[in-house]
Amino acid sequence: MKIAIIGGGPIGVEAALYAAQIGFEPQLFELGRIGEAARRWGHVQMFTEWARNRSPLGERLLRERGDNLPDASEFPSGNDLADYLLRLVSLPQLKGRVLPQTRVLSLTRDGLNKSDFYGDPRRHSRPFRVLSKGVAGEKTRFFDAVLDCSGVYASPNNLGTGGARCAGETGLAPFIDYAIPDVLGAERGRFVSHHTLVVGSGHSAAQTAISVAKLMESAPKTRLTWGVRRDLAFDGSLYALDPNDISSGRRKLGETANALAKGGKIELKIKTQISAVARKNGRFQVRFSDETEAEFDNICAHTGFRPDLELWRELQIAAHPATDGPSRLASAILGANRAAGVGISTGYAQKLGDIEKPEASENSDTRELLRLDEPNFHVLGIKSYGRDAGFLIGNGFHQIRDVFQILSGNEALDLYR
C-alpha cells in the first residue's frame, strides 16, 4: 500500500516509520524542515518526559542501530524533539521516503469531484492524487491512502474578540508574537525594560508570562500585563490543577502561573478581550473590550491554534462545527471535556489523566474515532483535535496503532507491544 503522509512532526515521522516497518510504501511530505514546528518553540522545555515522547518502535530501532538516547525521565526541549526526529528519518527504513521543503498543493480523488460517489464503494477504488511543489518544481503522485499529520502550529487563532481578527490586527500580524518568543534567550533584548501584553490562558501564555516575570526579577523596569477572557476561580487561581496529574511538568507550570496571577507583581486583566490594535512610534496601542486603552512594546497572542482545512476542501470530510476537527473524534473529546468540567479552549488535559482520553479508552473501539467518510483518509496528531488543546504525543501513538490496524485489516497489529 502506498501512503502519503503530510507533515514531518513527531506524529508524521512516527507514522512513516510504522508504515515502512510493516512493509507499506510511505512518502512523507514536509513543508519546511523535519521537526519545523518544534524548532519554532525549540527553547521551550516540554512538560512531558521522554518516556511519553518516544514510541517503543522508534526507541528500539535507534538502540538497535547503536544510538545513545537521553534518559526516559528527562524533559526534552522543542529542539531536542526535532533532533530526535532527524534521527528517526535517518533510519534505513525511511531512506528515500522523506521529502522536506515540499508543499502539498492539492489533494483529490483521481478523476472524481468532491460530490461524486458519496457513500459509494466506487470512490474507494480511486487513488488519491497528490500535487506537491518541492525544490525541483511541481509533481503529481498517486497513493492508496493519505494521513494528514500536518499539525496546527502554522494556523494560530486570532487576537480579537470572538475568535476573529480585531481592528488593525491584519496589518500588524507580522509584528505580533503568535509563537512562544525566547524571552530569556535570543529575544531578551525585545523584552527587557519593556512592557509586554500576553493574551491567552493556555500553556503557551503561561510559559511566556512566567518568562517575562523572571526577567522582571533582574530588570525591574520590565512590565507585564496578562489578559484573559475568563474569570478566576474562587481562590484566585487562573489554572485548574489536578493533584494526581501524572505530568509533573504541566502541574508545575500551572502552579507557577497561578502564583504569578495572585502575586500582585503584574497587571492581570480578567474577563477581557482585544477590540483594536494600532502601532505608533514603535509601540502598540491596544483597546480592550472594557474600552480601556494601554500602550505596549510587545504583544504575545497565545490564544490557541486551529486546523487549516484547505487540504480537505475537495474531499468528503465533515469538520465538527465547534472544533473544526474530524467529527467523530471531536464528539468524543467534547464529551470528555464535559465530564472533566473544562472548556474546549483549555482542553481536558488539566483534569483528566491520559488514560481517560478517547484514544486510550478500553471500553470502545477507538479505531472508529479515526474513520471518516472519505475512505482511507485519516487525520492524526494535534490536527485531529481541532481547536482543543488536550493533545499529547502519546495520544498520537495510539492513533498510529489504530489507523494501521484499519489500513492493514489486521486488528491484532501492534508494533508498540
Structure summarized in a few sentences:
By secondary structure, this protein is of the alpha/beta class. Helices cover 27% and strands 18% of the residues.
Secondary structure layout:
Layout: E1 2-6, H1 10-21, E2 25-29, H2 36-40, H3 56-65, H4 78-89, E3 98-99, E4 103-109, H5 121-124, E5 128-134, E6 137-143, E7 145-148, H6 169-172, H7 188-191, E8 195-199, H8 203-218, E9 223-227, H9 248-262, E10 267-269, E11 274-280, E12 283-288, E13 293-296, E14 298-301, H10 327-340, E15 377-379, H11 393-408
Parallel strand pairs: 1-2, 1-7, 2-3, 7-15, 8-9, 8-14, 9-10
Antiparallel strand pairs: 4-5, 5-6, 11-12, 12-13
Helix pairs in contact: 1-4, 1-11, 8-9
Can you offer a commentary on this structure?
- The protein is of the alpha/beta class.
- Helix content is 27%, strand content 18%.
- It is built from 11 helices and 15 strands.
- The chain has helices at 10-21, 36-40, 56-65, 78-89, 121-124, 169-172, 188-191, 203-218, 248-262, 327-340, 393-408; strands at residues 2-6, 25-29, 98-99, 103-109, 128-134, 137-143, 145-148, 195-199, 223-227, 267-269, 274-280, 283-288, 293-296, 298-301, 377-379.
- The protein has a 5-stranded parallel beta sheet with strand order 3-2-1-7-15, with helices on one face.
- A hairpin with a 4-residue loop joins strand 12 and strand 13 (293-296).
- The protein is globular, with a radius of gyration of 22 Å.
- The model is unreliable at 345-356 (pLDDT under 50).
